Amino acid sequence: MPPPFAPVGFAWEVMKQRGINQLRIAGAEELLGEGGALIDATGREQLGGVQFLMVAQATRAQHTFETVIEAARMGRGVQAAMLNRGLLDDVLDIHWTAEHPEAAPARADQHDRLIALAEHEAEDKFGRVERSLTGEEQSEFSELINLYGGHGRAFKASWHRAAFSDCFGLVQKRWKNEPEAADFLDYIYEVIQRRNNLLLHGSPTAYRQVVTQRSNGRIQLNRVGPDPLWMESLAQGAGGYYLVLRVLAQEFGFDKERLARAFSSSTSYCRKLDEFPGLGDLPDEAECPCGSGRAVRQCHRS
Ligand SMILES: [Zn+2]
Question: CA 103, 82, 115: angle at the middle one, nearest 5?
Protein backbone atom coordinates (compact mmCIF):
# COMPACT_ATOMS: atom_id res chain seq x y z
CA MET A 1 0.00 0.00 0.00
CA PRO A 2 1.41 3.41 -0.85
CA PRO A 3 2.02 5.76 2.08
CA PRO A 4 -0.61 8.50 2.54
CA PHE A 5 0.27 11.68 0.68
CA ALA A 6 0.36 13.46 4.03
CA PRO A 7 -0.91 12.51 7.48
CA VAL A 8 -4.47 13.61 8.21
CA GLY A 9 -4.52 17.18 9.47
CA PHE A 10 -0.91 17.78 8.45
CA ALA A 11 -1.61 21.43 7.54
CA TRP A 12 -1.99 22.23 11.24
CA GLU A 13 1.67 21.31 11.74
CA VAL A 14 2.50 24.30 9.57
CA MET A 15 -0.15 26.61 10.98
CA LYS A 16 0.43 25.99 14.68
CA GLN A 17 3.91 27.44 14.47
CA ARG A 18 2.21 30.80 14.80
CA GLY A 19 0.80 31.68 18.20
CA ILE A 20 -2.04 33.69 16.70
CA ASN A 21 -3.29 30.58 14.86
CA GLN A 22 -3.31 28.67 18.14
CA LEU A 23 -5.31 31.56 19.65
CA ARG A 24 -7.76 31.40 16.77
CA ILE A 25 -8.52 27.75 17.47
CA ALA A 26 -8.48 28.21 21.26
CA GLY A 27 -10.84 31.20 20.99
CA ALA A 28 -13.32 29.17 18.96
CA GLU A 29 -13.07 26.31 21.45
CA GLU A 30 -13.81 28.71 24.29
CA LEU A 31 -16.95 29.90 22.52
CA LEU A 32 -17.93 26.26 21.93
CA GLY A 33 -17.47 25.62 25.66
CA GLU A 34 -19.64 28.59 26.64
CA GLY A 35 -22.38 27.43 24.28
CA GLY A 36 -22.14 23.88 25.61
CA ALA A 37 -22.55 25.20 29.14
CA LEU A 38 -25.76 26.98 28.12
CA ILE A 39 -27.14 23.84 26.52
CA ASP A 40 -26.28 21.81 29.63
CA ALA A 41 -28.00 24.41 31.82
CA THR A 42 -31.30 23.81 30.02
CA GLY A 43 -31.19 20.17 31.10
CA ARG A 44 -31.88 21.07 34.72
CA GLU A 45 -35.57 21.03 33.98
CA GLN A 46 -37.72 18.53 32.19
CA LEU A 47 -37.98 19.72 28.62
CA GLY A 48 -40.85 19.22 26.25
CA GLY A 49 -42.48 20.80 23.22
CA VAL A 50 -40.85 23.88 21.78
CA GLN A 51 -38.11 23.99 24.40
CA PHE A 52 -37.01 20.50 23.52
CA LEU A 53 -37.02 21.43 19.83
CA MET A 54 -34.85 24.47 20.45
CA VAL A 55 -32.33 22.61 22.58
CA ALA A 56 -32.13 19.94 19.87
CA GLN A 57 -31.47 22.66 17.28
CA ALA A 58 -28.78 24.23 19.47
CA THR A 59 -27.16 20.85 20.05
CA ARG A 60 -27.02 20.23 16.33
CA ALA A 61 -25.42 23.67 15.89
CA GLN A 62 -22.92 22.79 18.60
CA HIS A 63 -21.92 19.60 16.80
CA THR A 64 -21.61 21.49 13.54
CA PHE A 65 -19.45 24.24 15.02
CA GLU A 66 -17.32 21.62 16.78
CA THR A 67 -16.71 20.04 13.37
CA VAL A 68 -16.05 23.44 11.75
CA ILE A 69 -13.30 24.02 14.32
CA GLU A 70 -11.70 20.68 13.50
CA ALA A 71 -11.94 21.37 9.75
CA ALA A 72 -10.37 24.82 10.27
CA ARG A 73 -7.61 23.29 12.39
CA MET A 74 -6.82 21.05 9.43
CA GLY A 75 -6.75 24.09 7.15
CA ARG A 76 -9.92 23.00 5.34
CA GLY A 77 -11.79 26.29 5.01
CA VAL A 78 -13.81 25.15 1.98
CA GLN A 79 -15.15 22.12 3.82
CA ALA A 80 -15.83 24.23 6.91
CA ALA A 81 -17.80 26.64 4.68
CA MET A 82 -19.98 23.74 3.48
CA LEU A 83 -20.87 23.06 7.10
CA ASN A 84 -21.40 26.76 7.73
CA ARG A 85 -24.04 26.77 5.03
CA GLY A 86 -26.02 24.32 7.15
CA LEU A 87 -25.25 26.21 10.32
CA LEU A 88 -26.57 29.47 8.89
CA ASP A 89 -29.78 27.66 7.91
CA ASP A 90 -30.07 26.56 11.54
CA VAL A 91 -29.89 30.22 12.53
CA LEU A 92 -33.01 30.94 10.47
CA ASP A 93 -34.81 27.87 11.79
CA ILE A 94 -34.23 28.50 15.48
CA HIS A 95 -35.39 32.10 15.13
CA TRP A 96 -38.59 30.85 13.51
CA THR A 97 -39.04 28.23 16.22
CA ALA A 98 -38.61 30.77 19.02
CA GLU A 99 -41.16 33.08 17.40
CA HIS A 100 -43.76 30.33 16.87
CA PRO A 101 -43.75 28.25 20.05
CA GLU A 102 -47.27 26.95 19.40
CA ALA A 103 -46.89 25.93 15.77
CA ALA A 104 -43.28 24.71 15.71
CA PRO A 105 -43.60 21.30 17.45
CA ALA A 106 -46.66 20.37 15.36
CA ARG A 107 -44.92 21.33 12.11
CA ALA A 108 -41.85 19.37 13.12
CA ASP A 109 -44.07 16.31 13.61
CA GLN A 110 -45.85 16.83 10.29
CA HIS A 111 -42.59 17.09 8.40
CA ASP A 112 -41.17 14.08 10.16
CA ARG A 113 -44.21 12.08 9.12
CA LEU A 114 -44.00 13.37 5.52
CA ILE A 115 -40.40 12.17 5.31
CA ALA A 116 -41.12 8.81 6.96
CA LEU A 117 -43.91 8.09 4.46
CA ALA A 118 -41.85 9.30 1.50
CA GLU A 119 -38.93 7.12 2.50
CA HIS A 120 -41.16 4.12 2.96
CA GLU A 121 -42.60 4.63 -0.50
CA ALA A 122 -39.13 5.04 -2.03
CA GLU A 123 -37.81 1.91 -0.30
CA ASP A 124 -40.88 0.06 -1.51
CA LYS A 125 -40.10 1.04 -5.10
CA PHE A 126 -36.81 -0.87 -4.74
CA GLY A 127 -38.47 -3.82 -2.99
CA ARG A 128 -36.74 -3.14 0.30
CA VAL A 129 -39.69 -3.02 2.67
CA GLU A 130 -42.05 -5.76 3.83
CA ARG A 131 -45.23 -4.04 2.73
CA SER A 132 -46.49 -1.10 0.70
CA LEU A 133 -48.19 1.92 2.24
CA THR A 134 -51.78 1.18 3.20
CA GLY A 135 -54.62 3.12 1.59
CA GLU A 136 -54.93 5.18 4.76
CA GLU A 137 -51.22 5.97 4.78
CA GLN A 138 -51.37 6.92 1.12
CA SER A 139 -54.10 9.47 1.71
CA GLU A 140 -52.20 10.83 4.73
CA PHE A 141 -49.13 11.11 2.49
CA SER A 142 -51.10 13.00 -0.19
CA GLU A 143 -52.48 15.41 2.39
CA LEU A 144 -49.03 16.11 3.75
CA ILE A 145 -47.65 16.67 0.24
CA ASN A 146 -50.40 19.21 -0.37
CA LEU A 147 -49.69 20.84 2.97
CA TYR A 148 -46.06 21.25 1.92
CA GLY A 149 -46.92 22.89 -1.42
CA GLY A 150 -47.78 19.92 -3.63
CA HIS A 151 -45.62 17.60 -5.75
CA GLY A 152 -42.36 19.17 -6.86
CA ARG A 153 -42.33 21.60 -3.97
CA ALA A 154 -43.03 19.46 -0.93
CA PHE A 155 -39.51 18.10 -0.57
CA LYS A 156 -37.86 21.45 -1.16
CA ALA A 157 -39.87 23.34 1.45
CA SER A 158 -38.33 23.68 4.89
CA TRP A 159 -39.88 21.67 7.73
CA HIS A 160 -41.59 24.76 9.17
CA ARG A 161 -42.89 25.86 5.73
CA ALA A 162 -41.90 29.50 6.31
CA ALA A 163 -40.19 31.40 3.48
CA PHE A 164 -36.57 32.49 3.76
CA SER A 165 -37.56 36.16 3.82
CA ASP A 166 -39.93 35.62 6.76
CA CYS A 167 -37.28 33.77 8.76
CA PHE A 168 -34.68 36.37 7.93
CA GLY A 169 -37.08 39.11 9.04
CA LEU A 170 -37.22 37.41 12.44
CA VAL A 171 -33.42 37.34 12.71
CA GLN A 172 -33.30 41.05 11.91
CA LYS A 173 -36.03 41.79 14.43
CA ARG A 174 -34.03 40.20 17.24
CA TRP A 175 -31.06 42.40 16.38
CA LYS A 176 -32.91 45.63 15.66
CA ASN A 177 -31.44 47.41 18.66
CA GLU A 178 -27.93 46.71 17.43
CA PRO A 179 -27.64 48.34 13.99
CA GLU A 180 -24.09 47.12 13.39
CA ALA A 181 -25.22 43.56 13.86
CA ALA A 182 -28.17 44.11 11.54
CA ASP A 183 -25.82 45.27 8.79
CA PHE A 184 -23.62 42.23 9.37
CA LEU A 185 -26.67 39.97 9.01
CA ASP A 186 -27.41 41.37 5.55
CA TYR A 187 -23.81 40.68 4.62
CA ILE A 188 -24.02 37.09 5.90
CA TYR A 189 -27.07 36.22 3.83
CA GLU A 190 -26.31 38.24 0.70
CA VAL A 191 -22.61 37.46 0.39
CA ILE A 192 -21.35 34.71 2.67
CA GLN A 193 -24.23 32.28 2.29
CA ARG A 194 -24.17 32.67 -1.49
CA ARG A 195 -20.44 31.96 -1.58
CA ASN A 196 -20.84 28.96 0.72
CA ASN A 197 -23.36 27.62 -1.74
CA LEU A 198 -20.79 27.77 -4.53
CA LEU A 199 -18.26 26.00 -2.34
CA LEU A 200 -20.72 23.28 -1.37
CA HIS A 201 -21.91 22.47 -4.88
CA GLY A 202 -18.50 22.69 -6.54
CA SER A 203 -17.58 25.55 -8.86
CA PRO A 204 -14.50 27.28 -10.22
CA THR A 205 -14.68 29.41 -7.05
CA ALA A 206 -14.27 26.23 -5.06
CA TYR A 207 -11.55 24.74 -7.28
CA ARG A 208 -9.55 27.96 -7.00
CA GLN A 209 -9.09 27.33 -3.28
CA VAL A 210 -6.85 24.31 -3.89
CA VAL A 211 -4.32 26.19 -5.99
CA THR A 212 -1.80 28.89 -5.16
CA GLN A 213 -0.70 31.56 -7.56
CA ARG A 214 3.00 32.29 -7.32
CA SER A 215 4.40 35.79 -7.68
CA ASN A 216 5.71 34.85 -11.16
CA GLY A 217 2.13 34.05 -12.18
CA ARG A 218 2.55 30.28 -12.12
CA ILE A 219 -0.28 28.29 -10.65
CA GLN A 220 0.41 25.31 -8.47
CA LEU A 221 -1.65 22.87 -6.46
CA ASN A 222 -1.89 23.57 -2.76
CA ARG A 223 -2.48 19.92 -1.97
CA VAL A 224 -1.78 19.74 1.75
CA GLY A 225 -3.14 23.20 2.61
CA PRO A 226 -4.13 25.19 4.56
CA ASP A 227 -6.52 26.71 2.04
CA PRO A 228 -7.00 30.50 1.96
CA LEU A 229 -10.45 30.33 3.58
CA TRP A 230 -9.84 28.50 6.84
CA MET A 231 -9.68 31.58 9.04
CA GLU A 232 -12.73 33.22 7.49
CA SER A 233 -14.70 29.98 7.72
CA LEU A 234 -13.79 29.62 11.38
CA ALA A 235 -15.06 33.15 12.05
CA GLN A 236 -18.28 32.52 10.10
CA GLY A 237 -18.90 29.31 12.01
CA ALA A 238 -18.45 31.20 15.26
CA GLY A 239 -20.97 33.79 14.02
CA GLY A 240 -23.61 31.20 13.11
CA TYR A 241 -23.12 29.28 16.34
CA TYR A 242 -23.35 32.48 18.36
CA LEU A 243 -26.61 33.53 16.69
CA VAL A 244 -28.17 30.14 17.44
CA LEU A 245 -27.00 30.07 21.06
CA ARG A 246 -28.06 33.64 21.65
CA VAL A 247 -31.64 32.74 20.84
CA LEU A 248 -31.43 29.80 23.24
CA ALA A 249 -30.03 32.04 26.00
CA GLN A 250 -32.76 34.59 25.37
CA GLU A 251 -35.58 32.05 25.45
CA PHE A 252 -34.35 30.38 28.62
CA GLY A 253 -33.56 33.68 30.34
CA PHE A 254 -29.84 32.90 30.64
CA ASP A 255 -27.09 35.48 30.94
CA LYS A 256 -25.73 36.21 27.46
CA GLU A 257 -22.62 38.12 28.54
CA ARG A 258 -20.12 35.29 28.77
CA LEU A 259 -21.21 33.97 25.40
CA ALA A 260 -20.96 37.46 23.88
CA ARG A 261 -17.46 37.97 25.30
CA ALA A 262 -16.23 34.62 24.00
CA PHE A 263 -17.71 35.41 20.58
CA SER A 264 -16.09 38.83 20.53
CA SER A 265 -12.57 37.59 21.33
CA SER A 266 -12.85 34.65 18.97
CA THR A 267 -13.84 37.06 16.17
CA SER A 268 -10.96 39.39 17.06
CA TYR A 269 -8.37 36.63 16.73
CA CYS A 270 -9.69 35.71 13.28
CA ARG A 271 -9.14 39.21 11.88
CA LYS A 272 -6.40 39.44 9.31
CA LEU A 273 -3.18 41.41 9.77
CA ASP A 274 -3.69 43.49 6.66
CA GLU A 275 -6.68 45.20 8.26
CA PHE A 276 -4.15 46.93 10.53
CA PRO A 277 -1.51 48.62 8.36
CA GLY A 278 0.15 50.28 11.39
CA LEU A 279 0.62 47.03 13.27
CA GLY A 280 4.35 46.82 12.55
CA ASP A 281 5.03 50.17 14.24
CA LEU A 282 3.31 49.32 17.52
CA PRO A 283 5.49 48.43 20.50
CA ASP A 284 5.23 44.81 21.67
CA GLU A 285 3.33 45.71 24.81
CA ALA A 286 0.72 47.91 23.08
CA GLU A 287 -2.83 46.62 22.98
CA CYS A 288 -3.52 44.68 19.81
CA PRO A 289 -5.73 46.66 17.40
CA CYS A 290 -7.81 43.54 16.68
CA GLY A 291 -9.80 44.23 19.85
CA SER A 292 -8.89 41.07 21.75
CA GLY A 293 -7.57 43.10 24.69
CA ARG A 294 -4.23 41.27 24.60
CA ALA A 295 -0.80 42.80 24.01
CA VAL A 296 0.28 42.71 20.34
CA ARG A 297 3.15 40.41 21.28
CA GLN A 298 0.69 37.88 22.68
CA CYS A 299 -1.84 38.29 19.90
CA HIS A 300 -1.41 39.12 16.22
CA ARG A 301 2.38 39.28 16.48
CA SER A 302 2.72 35.91 18.21
ZN1 LIG B 1 -4.82 40.67 17.93
Answer: 40
CA 25 to ligand 1 center in whole angstroms: 13
Average pLDDT over residues 147-167: 95
Domain residue spans in the chain? 1-100+164-197+225-270, 102-159, 278-302
pTM over 0.70: yes
H or E stretch covering 92: helix 77-99
Find the 81 Cα to ligand 1 centroid distance in Å.
23
Q: How remote is the CA of residue 264 from the centroid of ligand 1, in Å? A: 12
Q: Are 105 and 49 in contact (CB under 8 A)?
A: yes
According to the model, what pLDDT value does residue 181 have?
80
Please list the residues that pair with 221 across neighbouring strands.
211
117 CB-near residues (< 8 Å, 6+ apart):
133, 137, 140, 141, 144
For residue 182, pLDDT over 80 is answered with no
Q: Which of 290, 265, 232 is nearest to 32 (CA)?
A: 265
Q: DSSP of 176-232, one letter per residue?
A: TT-HHHHHHHHHIIIIIHHHHHHHHH--HHHHGGGEEE-TTS-EEE--S---TTHHH
Q: Give the residue among 141, 90, 75 at the shortest CA–CA distance from 114.
A: 141
* Whether 120 contacts 110, CB under 8 Å: no
